[in-house]
Specification:
This protein has 89 residues and is mainly α. The chain has helices spanning 14-45, 50-82.
Length: 89
C-alpha cells in the first residue's frame, strides 16, 4: 500500500525554490550548449551532403532530448517492477 505524505512532511522553503531555480537555469544553459553543437559539428565535419547530415543530427538530437528526461521514470519503473523488495520503507 502506498504511503501518503502529510502536509507537515513536505518542505518547500525559499532555499529549495532557489536551488531548483538555479538548477533549472544551469540545465537551460546545457541545453543551449548542446543545441549549438549542431552548426559547430557541421563546420568541423564538413559533410558532402549537408541536408542529409542536418536531418541525421536533428533526429539524433530530437530522440536524445526525448529519451533523456524519460530515462529516470523508466529506470524507476524497472526497479519497482523487477526489484520490488529492494526499497526499504
Amino acid at each position: 500500500m502506498p504511503r501518503v505524505l502529510n502536509a507537515d512532511e513536505v518542505e518547500i522553503t525559499p532555499f529549495t525554490v532557489l536551488v531548483q531555480g538555479v538548477g533549472y537555469l544551469i540545465m537551460m544553459g546545457v541545453a543551449n550548449l548542446l543545441y549549438s553543437l549542431g552548426p559547430l559539428s557541421e563546420r568541423l565535419v564538413r559533410p558532402a551532403n549537408a541536408d542529409r547530415y542536418r536531418q541525421l543530427c536533428y533526429r539524433l538530437g530530437f530522440w536524445f532530448s526525448v529519451l533523456l528526461p524519460s530515462s529516470i521514470p523508466l529506470l524507476l519503473t524497472i526497479s519497482v517492477l523487477f526489484f520490488p523488495g529492494s526499497r526499504k520503507q
